[in-house]
Amino acid sequence: MAWIPRTAEILRAVAAYQLAQEALAADFAARWAQVLAGVEARELAASLTALRTEYRAAIRESAAASRTLSVAFYRLVRALETGRVIGGPGYRPGASLGSLWADFNTATGKRTGTGAREPLPVDTRNPFPAEAIDREARRAEETFRQQIADRVEKHEREHAERKGSAALDAAELIAWEREFLESLKTGGSGAGGQIVQDGGRDMIHNALQDDPGAIGYYRATEGSPCYFCALMAGRGAVYKSKRTAAFGAHPHCHCQAVPIFSRRYQLPDANARFERMWREFGGGSLADWRTHYTKT
Ligand SMILES: [Zn+2]
Predict the structure, then answer these.
(1) What distance in angstroms lies between residue 17's CA and the mean position of ligand 1's atoms?
(2) How many CA atoms lie within 13 A of 201 on its CB side?
(3) CB neighbours (10 Å) of residue 15?
(4) What pTM does this model have?
(5) Å from CA of 66 to ligand 1 middle
(6) Quick one: pLDDT band at residue 175, thresholds 50, 70, 90?
(7) How remote is the CA of residue 156 from the centroid of ligand 1, in Å?
(8) Residue ranges per structural domain of the chain
């Protein structure tokens, strides 16, 4: 008997997954803000080595959680859509919709669904890539340099230049320092949060390529995405090819890749809304779309 995709359950899982990935990025941002709050402004330059260590550790741990979550999500969506279980990390013999929902609920920390305990047929293949820890560590290092170390050094130079000139009064100086600290917080958490969520996005994107059961993916957006992400989401399914385009996330972006295994998939309401907006817009440059999207 042909399996009927459990569309309503899949859409619930998608919404829970997007929120859980967003929460991982928020946890990371909170941790980074706390680290920064523990350092006096005048000690930042001297604390860069310690800050770098903290930053990298926070990214490593949150990205690992993002990957674990994405594997549980992928396996659950695949089973709900095809009635079959895929192997790889976290696979347990006798897996059922019940056990897959339980794994997903554990990974998200929320009870979103339940299912029967009947074991499902298994595709023993492992499509999930080995963790690219080295590449991720290099990205974290580079991001720290751009978002934190370079800013701190520039700030130190400006401090030295301003010392003699007395160009700022006390209130201006306080505002300037506050803005600087804010830039370390926002820049560090935005770019770092992208690496964190790319843990899960890359996992799904790579698994698709190596899973003959997968036919493509679509973009699930956060509540009110930016114009770029709305456009990407409005395109609907991206069917996989030899060179499926990169996902194209950006700092402070909480969009996620949702794998598709059946032509009978259903998009979340938001995607259909963006598609309609795009049609009404009628075409034009990206800048025109931005204006159109922002005022709608
Ligand atoms: Zn986005």
Answers:
(1) 14
(2) 27
(3) 14
(4) 0.93
(5) 16
(6) confident
(7) 34
(8) 7-295
